[in-house]
Amino acid sequence: MVPLHYYLLLSAILFACGVTGFLIKRNIITIFMSIELMLNAVNLSFVAFAARWHVLSGQVFVFFVMVVAAAETAVGLAIIIAVYRTRETLNVDQVNLLKL
Amino acid sequence: MIATADYIRILPEIVLTLFGLIVMFVDPLLPESRNVKPLGIIALIGSLGAVAASIYQMRYPGPAFWNFVVVDNFSIFFHLLVTIAAALVIMASFEYLRVQEIRAGEYFGLILFGTVGMALMSSAVELVLIFIALEISSISTYILAGFRRRDAGSVESSLKYFLLGSFATAFFLYGIALMFGATGSTDIPQIASALRLNGAPLLAYVAYALMFVGLGFKIASAPFHVWTPDVYEGAPSPVVAFMSTAPKMAVFAVLLRILFVTESPSLLAGSRPVWFWWVWGSAAVSMTLGNLGALVQNNVKRMLAYSAIAHAGYLLVAFAAAPEAGISAAMFYAASYTAMNLGAFIVVSHFANAGERYVTLDDYTGLGRRSPLLAMTLTIFLISLIGIPATAGFFAKFYVFSAALKANLVWLTIIAVVNSAIGAYYYLRVIVAMYMRDSTQEIPVMRVPAGVTATLLCSVAAVIYLGILPGRVLEFATRSAQSLLR
Predict the structure, then answer these.
(1) CA distance B142 to B161
(2) Structural domains in chain A plus CATH codes
(3) pTM flag (> 0.90)
C-alpha cells in the first residue's frame, strides 16, 4: 500500500504548481487553469485523509468541490469573454485600465 | 429525521432563495423597459421577509440538519446585518439600473442569491458548508462587479476580483483539507475538542495559516489587500456599497467562529491562541497601509477602498484582544461599519450621476452649496468613519481600543490610535472640498429619488442611533459572544 504522506506530498506539489502558474503565467486562460489545478490538488488531500481516518465524508467533499469548481468555471469563462470583447486581448498585463 | 424546526432554522435562506427565483421567473414576463420597479419591489419584499424570518428564528435557537447549521444570537446578529444591508442596496439601486440600462432581473436575483450565501456563512458550523456558502456569496459578487459589461473598467474589476478571489478560495479550501487531516473532522466544535484532547499538531498550524490567507483576502486585510482599490474603483457603485459591507461582514463572522470556537479552551484558560501573532501583524499592517494609501488618492471611490482596508485592520485589532470583550467589540464594529460605509458609497453612487463620472475630489468642490442635503449626509458618514463622538464610528473604535488595552495590547492600540489620526486627514479633505472650496465646473446634481432617500435615511438613523444609544446592540453582541465561547 502506498503510504499516506506520498499522497500528501503529491498534493502539495500540485498545489505549488498551481500557485506558481497563477503567479508567472500571463494568459488569463492559463491562470484560470492554474486555479483549477489548485482545487484538484486539494481534492487529492481530501481523499487521502478520508482513507486515513476511515470516514467517507472526505470523499463526499470532493464532489462538493467539483460542483463549486464547475460553477466557478462557468462564471469565469463568461467574465473572460466579456474581457476579450472590451479589450481584444487575453494578456493580463494589457488589462490595466485601473492602476494597481 | 428532519424536523420542522430544522427548516425554521434556515428560514431566512429559504425566503431569499424563493424570492430570488420569483424575480428570475417574473423577469421575462415583463417588458424590459419597465421592469426595474416591479422586480425591485419583489426583491425588496424578499430581503425584508428574510429580516423578519431572522427575527422569528430567535425563538428557535439550536442546531439543525445534523449539526451543520446552528441558530444562536451570533448567527441572528449577522443574519440581520447582511439582510438589512441587502434591502438597503436594493432600495438604492432602482435609479442606477434605469440610468445605466442594466438588466434588473439578474441584478436583483444575484443580490438575493449572494445574500443566501452570506446568511448561511454566519450560521454554518461545518467547514465544507462554510466553503460552499462562501462560494455562493463570492460567485454572485464576481458577476455583480462586472455588471456594466460594456464598460472596460467594470469588466476588468470583475476579472481581477474573480481571479484573485478564486485563488484565495483555493487556499481556504486547502486549509480545510489539512484541518480535516489533523483532526479527522470538519465540524467546528468537534475540531475544538480534538485539538484540546491531542494538542495542536503542526498540520493544524499550517491549516490555520492557509485558512487565514483565504479569508484575509475576502475581508481585504493586508497583505492580501492589493485587489481592493482596483475592484472598488471599477465596479458599479451600488454593488461596491454592497460588497464592501455584507460579504465582508459575513466573512468576519466565519473568522470569529473558526478562530474563537476552535481555540476556545486555550482562550478561556487565558493563554494566547496559535493564530495570535498573524492577526496582530495583519491588523497593524492593514491599518497602516490602508490609511497611507488613502492619503494620496484623488478618486473618492479609491479613497474609500483604502479606508475599507484600514477598517478591516481596526476590526482585526478586536480579534487580537481578549476573547469576550474582543468578540462583542468586533460585532459592534461590524454593525457600525456596515451602516456608515454603505451610506457613504450610496452618496458617492448618486453624486457620480449614476454614471460613474464624477468621482474625483475636484468634482466634490462646492457640493455643500449645490446640494446641501446630500453633502450633509455624506459629512455624517465621513465623521462617523473618522470616529467623532455622537456617531457610530466613535463607539465602535472606543470599544475596540478599550478591549485591546484590557488585553494589554499597548503597542497595537498605539498603532491604531495613530492611524485614526492619519485617517481623519483624508476624510476631512472631502468635507473641506465640499464646503470650503468653490466649484470649478458646473456639474448637474440629479434629483434624489425616493429609494436613495430611504436608504440614506435608514443609514443615517443607524449611524446616529449606534452613536448615541449603543447599549442595546452592544449588550446583544456581548450575549452572542458568550454563546459563541461556551
Answers:
(1) 6
(2) 4-87 (1.10.287.3510)
(3) yes
B198 touches chain A (CB under 8 A): no
Q: Decide if A97 and B173 are in contact by the 8 Å CB cutoff.
A: no
Nearest CA in chain A to B175: A42
CB contact A61 to B (< 8 Å): yes
Cβ distance B170 to A52 less than 8 Å, yes or no, reads: no
Q: Which of B130, B134, B180 to mutate to test the interface with A (most CBs of A within 10 A)?
A: B180
Q: If you measure CA to CA, which chain B residue comes closest to A28?
A: B163
Say whether A100 sits in a helix, a strand or coil. coil
Q: Which of residues 7-36 of A touch B (CB under 8 A)?
A: 8, 15, 18, 22, 28, 31-32, 35
| Nearest Cα residue in chain B from A77 | B159
Q: How far A45 CA lies from chain B's nearest CA (Å)?
A: 6
pLDDT by position in tens, chain B (length 486): 678 889 999 999 999 999 999 999 999 999 888 889 999 999 999 999 999 999 999 999 999 998 899 999 999 999 999 999 999 999 999 988 888 888 889 999 999 999 999 999 999 999 999 999 999 999 999 999 999 888 888 999 999 999 999 999 999 999 999 999 999 899 999 998 888 887 778 888 899 999 999 999 999 998 899 999 999 999 999 999 999 999 999 999 999 999 888 887 777 777 788 888 889 999 999 999 999 999 999 899 999 999 999 999 999 999 988 787 889 999 999 999 999 999 999 999 888 865 667 888 888 888 888 888 889 999 999 999 999 999 999 999 999 999 999 988 899 999 999 999 999 999 999 999 889 887 777 777 778 889 999 999 999 999 999 999 999 999 999 998 888 887
User: Is any Cβ of chain A less than 8 angstroms from the Cβ of B142?
Assistant: yes
ipTM: 0.96
Instruction: Provide the shortest C-alpha distance from residue A76 to chain B (in Å).
Output: 7
Which of B162, B178, B230 is the closest to A98 by Cβ?
Answer: B230
Residue type, B159: L
Distance from CA of B52 to the nearest CA of A (A): 30
B132: contact with A, CB 8 A cutoff: yes
Give the domain ranges of chain B: 4-485
